[in-house]
Amino acid sequence: MKKSHERWNEYQAASSEYPEELYRTSERLEKRIKKESRKKKFLFTTIPTAAAAMLFVIIVNTSIVFARTVSEIPLLSKISELVMYNESLRSAVENRNIQYVNLKAENDGVELKLPYVIADSRNLVLFLEMPDLETADNEFYDVSIDHLTDLSNGNFISGGFFSYGGTYTEGQDSLLKLQLEIIESTYPGQKTIEKLPKNFELSVSLRKLQSIPVKYGAESHKLLALDSYKFTLNLDDFKAPVIYPLNKEVTIEGQKVLFKEMISYPVRSEIIFEFPEENTHDLELRLSLVEDGIKSSLGSYAYIQKHYDGVRRQTIHITSDYFNPPKSRSISIDRYAIKPKNVDIRTSIDMNKKTMSPEIEGIELTDITRADGEIILTFKASELYPYPPFSFTLGDEKFIETNDIKTQNGTTHIYSITDDNYDTLELIQVAGPEYTLDEPILIPIPVSQ
Fold it and tell me: d(Cα 84, Cα 203) in Å, to the nearest integer?
């Protein structure tokens, strides 16, 4: 068996035989990682830049299809940098599920190019080529999707989707990834989108922003300029989603959870589970995905949520290989938070006496400080809370905005609010403590229909 350093030397040697365009790709990737590390927005900032660039070589080395595709399609070596850590998008590129649209849009002499897109019935990924724009220190450009107009029926679509993308500063690589994910609407009266139209006009905003430091190490952003660009897209037929039934019910502390199904799309997959009306407590689950024995966290509790007929439905969006499913996979329930359902747990703080009444089991008010127009309140919890446990009100359901919240080790929670000469503050408990299961609960996911 070869030792790890011998395999690493082989990868390095192989990298020297790569086409010049792929070599430039690894150089660009190293520069991109250094830039994103400074901005603290890159997913893999903990990976040394040289190692991450070499990781790209390894990915290409171990996927002949990916390497061939990257070298054959124009611009795709740059696109590969943007998708290399995303299993779904990398597989979409591998399997040629990427469409060349070659579009341009201009506003006041500034041109945006849209050479490629990846799309399915619930997702859209744009690869935009930015012009050479100038930015001063603490300035950057932000690109976002504003709305769509379905050209088959004239419907204006401004909600029912998430949109997120990249930022641009002078001197960085010109290619940006901008993504749209259709979601179930969670707001009354807001229109939902069943699927992405194939023929539509897309409105994209380009904003120039300036970062301004504020308190607590945070930043605010001042808008310096705003321009809009429109693209008309006629997309190829979408590949059909693959539905994997789960139909697995589990019980945690007497509360039921029904895992219904996983729906796989070329861009990402959805896992859907529900909490029935009969539950007496609200559960929030911390999940992981296990594929071929490799376990990866699915993040925080920030899942998409919808209520209907007393049922609470949650949907998680994950990356998963649509074209080449793993040999085995499952959802792992690792931890959970719990609090009574439809019960307001309230307490009041006497600002003069620095006391909390009634006391809340397991949470202690340890300090109140008033200085420079602010109130700092510190609470100590005996249990781990994944999120700060309280919201502040004036007793009439008007919530008080917090300036800053810090959580230390999940047990100490420090709130800062503007001091409006409050004598009393009312608190509502909005989060419950988190517990780790002795043994994770596994929900098998089929690998074939």
Answer: 27
CATH of the domain at 200: 2.60.40
Which of 210, 238, 266 is the last residue in one of the domains? 238
pTM reported for the whole predicted model: 0.77
> Phi, psi at residue 9, to the nearest 5°?
-65, -35
Quote the tokens at residue 27.
Answer: 């150089």
* 110-121 per-position pLDDT tens digit: 899 999 999 999
Per the structure, how many domains does the chain have? Answer: 4
Question: Of 73, 96, 119, which one is at a domain's C-terminal end?
Answer: 96
Question: Of the candidates 243, 259, 400, which has an alpha carbon nearest to the alpha carbon of residue 325?
Answer: 243
Range of 154's domain?
A: 98-238
Of 134, 129, 69, nearest in space to 105 by CA: 129
Q: Are residues 248 and 326 in the same domain?
A: yes
CA dist list (Å): 101 to 69, 117, 166, 338, 378: 17, 7, 20, 48, 55
Q: Round the CA-based radius of gyration of the chain to a whole number and report it.
A: 25
pLDDT digits (tens, 9 = 90+) for 93-148: 888 899 999 999 999 888 999 999 999 999 999 999 988 888 988 999 999 999 99
Question: Same domain, yes or no, for 369 and 336?
Answer: no
